[in-house]
Amino acid sequence: MHKLSPFLEKPWLPILAGFLLFGASAVGGVGFELHITTIWFDKLLHFLGGMVVTWFVLTAIPHLRTTLAILAVVLVVGLLWEMAEWWGSFGNTSAFPLYAKYMGIGTHLDTIFDLLFDLLGGAVLLARVKLKTLFTLAREKLQY
């Protein structure tokens, strides 16, 4: 069982975090072109995106308990994002007028690393939650 702290269990929080992350991507990536000038900016966003998707799954789908299933959801969301980047690379500026330039930056290697950082972000959050859960259970057993 994955246990979040009570404050973090609110299902609207990861949605808000996702919008804020998308805003940071738009401002930093499009406004300041950090995706071009700072190589780690895109990877940081994918890492945090993996965390946000994992957080959302933990709050919105609590019966999904296995690490593999949760990371599979993270991978699917990452793949959908990469498909949007790929679609944007064909000059469909009418579909993404503001983001077309940003979304069309990927290469195959970039896509692989983006997905890796999506999964890494999800795995780090899951490891943190699992360790906290294990330590909480161990502490409760020691008290009895």
Labels describing this entry:
single chain, 144 residues, mainly alpha, transmembrane, YjdF-like, DUF2238 domain-containing protein, membrane, transmembrane helix
Task: Provide an overview of this structure.
With 144 residues, this protein is mainly α. The chain is built from 6 helices and no strands. The longest helix is centred in the last third of the chain and has 36 residues, at 108-143. This is DUF2238 domain-containing protein. The chain crosses the membrane at residues 12-32, 44-61, 68-88, 108-129. InterPro entries: YjdF-like.
Order of helices and strands: HHHHHH
Biggest sheet statistics: none
- Give the total of beta strands: 0
* Shape label: elongated
Could you tell me the radius of gyration in angstroms? 17 Å
Share of helical residues: over 70%
Number of domains: 1
Q: Low-confidence spans: pLDDT under 50, at least 5 residues?
A: none
Q: What is the CA–CA distance across the termini?
A: 21 Å
User: How would you classify the helix and strand content by structural class?
Assistant: mainly alpha
Strand-residue fraction?
Answer: under 5%
Number of helices: 6
Helix and strand layout, with pairings?
Elements: H1 12-31, H2 34-37, H3 39-60, H4 67-88, H5 100-103, H6 108-143
Helix pairs in contact: 1-3, 3-4, 3-6, 4-6
Transmembrane segments: 12-32, 44-61, 68-88, 108-129
Protein name: DUF2238 domain-containing protein
Pfam families: DUF2238 (PF09997)
Give a brief description.
The protein is mainly α and 144 residues long. It has helices at residues 12-31, 34-37, 39-60, 67-88, 100-103, 108-143.
